[in-house]
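Bug report (template v2)

What were you trying to do?
Predict the complex of my protein with succinic acid.

What happened?
Run completed; filing so the output is reviewed.

Input:
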Amino acid sequence: MAADGFKVFPGRLDGSAQAGLAEIVFAAAQVAPFYRPVTPGGRPMSVRMTNFGPLGWVTDAAGYRYQALHPETGRPWPAIPATLIDLWRGLAEAPDDPDCCLVNLYDAQARMSLHQDRDEADFRFPVLSVSLGDSAVFRIGGKSRKGPTATVRLASGDVCLLAGSARLAFHGVDRVLAGSSRLIPGGGRLNLTLRRAGPA
Ligand code: SIN
Ligand code: FE2
C-alpha cells in the first residue's frame, strides 16, 4: 500500500471555491476543448482531457509526453488558474511552481486504469490533484503494480497529494459515483492534476 507520502485533504476547497474553479475550467475549455485521448496501443480513453499551463500531458500513437500545444487546435494551453498555483504553494512543499495542470473529465462510465505518473523530469516534485463534482473511488497502491492496493473515496473539494515515497505509487479511478454531487451541470467529475513536468 501507499507509503507515507500519500495524503488526502478532505474538503480543502469549500463550496464557493469549488464552484468558482469549475466555472474557470469550463470557460478555459472553450479555448482548449476537452478531447478524447488515445493510448499508445490505439485505445480511446474513457476520460476526456485538456490541460492548462506551459506544458500539457498528452497520449497518442506516438506515446505519452508533455507538449506546449493542444493536439487538436494547435494552440497553447490556457494558463493555470491562480487558485491552483496558490494551492500548490500551500501544500506541495516544492521549490518551483507547477508547469502543467492536466484536466480530466469523467462521465458516469469513465475510469482510469492503474498507472504511475512517470513522464516528468524530476520526481522530487509531488503530484497534487483536486477533485470536483461527482465522487470517485480512487485506488492507490505502491511502487509495484502487483502490490496490495486500497481504495479511498474522493469527493468534490478534496485534494490529494502523492509525494515522497508515494510519488511513484500506482493509482487509478475504479469508478465515478454518478449523482453524488450537483456541482457540475448534468453530472460528472473533474480532476485537476498539478505537476512539474519540466526540470526544476
Ligand atoms: C490521474 O491519475 O490522472 C487521475 C486521478 C484522478 O482522477 O483522481
Ligand atoms: Fe495519474
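What did the reviewer find?
The pocket of fe (ii) ion (ligand 2) is lined by residues 115, 117, 171 (CB under 6 Å). The chain has a mean pLDDT of 97.
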